[in-house]
């Protein structure tokens, strides 16, 4: 079972990701991955400046990214997911869907990365993307985001 601790201090009231939705995402990903034990995940929204800096440091890309995820596997947290709200908002506008759906998509995507899934190689993508699609459909989100 996944338990997500989400830091939304950077966001104003109406921008915050609903707690109920957070629980739904954690539940559906836990079910899809058949997780038995508790996995604590730390998640936070960061400024674009911070995301750009971390993206350069960890991925060698000098640009803002929408989500970064890390497997920590320490005694407090199994993993960490970081989001850029502003980037998610831009992407939602471009794709003509809600910011809530975009963040749901990014959260599912980030969680799958934390649990070892990747999509850099075609064979890995064939494992990750169908699972991601399955989870998003259960959550009522169009997987073509």
UniProtKB/TrEMBL annotation:
Predominant subcellular localization, coarse grouping: cytoplasm
Domain of life (superkingdom): Bacteria
GO annotation (BP), single: rRNA processing
Enzyme Commission number: 3.1.-.-
Record-linked InterPro entries: MetalPrtase_cat_dom_sf_prd (IPR023091), YbeY (IPR002036)
GO cellular component, one term: cytoplasm
Annotated Pfam families: YbeY
Compartment annotation: Cytoplasm
Record has Nuclease as a keyword: yes
Binding residues for Zn(2+): 109, 113, 119
Cofactor note as given: Binds 1 zinc ion.
Keywords: Cytoplasm, Endonuclease, Hydrolase, Metal-binding, Nuclease, Ribosome biogenesis, rRNA processing, Zinc
GO molecular function, one term: zinc ion binding
Family: Belongs to the endoribonuclease YbeY family.
Protein function: Single strand-specific metallo-endoribonuclease involved in late-stage 70S ribosome quality control and in maturation of the 3' terminus of the 16S rRNA.
Protein name as annotated: Endoribonuclease YbeY
Species whose genome carries this gene: Candidatus Uhrbacteria bacterium RIFCSPLOWO2_02_FULL_48_18
């Amino acid at each position: 079972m996944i338990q997500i601790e989400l830091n939304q201090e950077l966001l104003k009231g109406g921008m915050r990701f609903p707690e109920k939705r957070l629980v739904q995402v954690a539940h559906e990903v836990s079910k899809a991955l058949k997780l038995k034990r508790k996995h604590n995940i730390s998640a936070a929204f960061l400024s674009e400046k911070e995301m750009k800096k971390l993206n350069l440091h960890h991925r060698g890309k000098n640009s803002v990214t929408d989500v970064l995820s890390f497997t920590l596997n320490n005694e407090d947290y199994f993993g960490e997911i970081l989001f850029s709200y502003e980037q998610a908002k831009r992407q939602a506008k471009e794709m003509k869907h809600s910011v809530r759906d975009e963040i749901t998509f990014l959260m599912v995507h980030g969680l799958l990365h934390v649990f070892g899934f990747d999509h850099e190689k075609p064979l890995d993508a064939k494992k990750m993307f169908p699972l991601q699609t399955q989870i998003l459909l259960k959550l009522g989100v169009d997987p073509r985001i």
